[in-house]
Design goal:
The chain is mainly beta. It has one helix and ten strands. It is 7% helix and 30% strand.
């Protein structure tokens, strides 16, 4: 795998011929023998599909292992350093180079949540627009799903239990 100096791939722009973007994915096996499944956002390509991996595209300068660690942390909150590489796939049509991993964990399954990080690696909090979705994250960076959150102006909003999408624009201030 070679990094091409001076070349930056931009999401949504056509990838030049002969160039591939890096994607790292991981299968997560819990100590009790079960596997983590994730469901794709319904608004994205293949929305609603269940997947046996967590992962995604590498950021500029990331190697496959750095990418999979970040993606697993972002998508589940799981922090782990012990990954076993299980394969690599070069997908010609999509110009993608996949590096696949397996990891084992004993993390409390109820603690798995979705996080987003800003460009400096900090957990985002509060109201955010991400991938054309209006989402809310508490002070710890945990996405509000199936609950309520109060904005800075004192208005209470509800969020979908599955997607975390803003369900209403309740403009009534919360009573003290």
């Amino acid at each position: 795998m070679n990094v091409i100096a001076g070349r930056v791939l931009v999401r949504g722009e056509k990838i030049p011929k002969g160039v591939y973007h890096l994607v790292s994915e991981v299968i997560v096996r819990h100590q009790d023998g079960t596997y983590l499944l994730t469901q794709r956002n319904p608004r994205k390509n293949l929305g609603g599909m269940w997947e046996a991996t967590a992962g995604g595209s590498a950021l500029q300068g990331e190697n496959p292992l750095e990418c999979v660690k970040r993606e697993l942390r972002e998508e589940t909150g799981i922090l782990i350093d012990d990954f076993i590489e299980v394969g690599r796939v070069l997908h010609q049509k999509h110009q993608t180079y996949y590096v696949n991993y397996l990891c084992h964990t004993d993390v409390d399954k109820d603690s798995i949540v979705w996080y987003y990080f800003d460009e400096n690696g900090r957990v985002v909090t509060g109201d955010q627009e991400i991938n054309v979705q209006e989402l809310h994250f508490d002070e710890n960076g945990v996405q509000t799903k199936g609950g309520f959150a109060t904005d800075t102006e004192g208005h209470k909003h509800s969020y979908d239990a599955k997607t975390g999408d803003l369900e209403d624009e309740n403009v009534a201030p919360v009573e003290a």
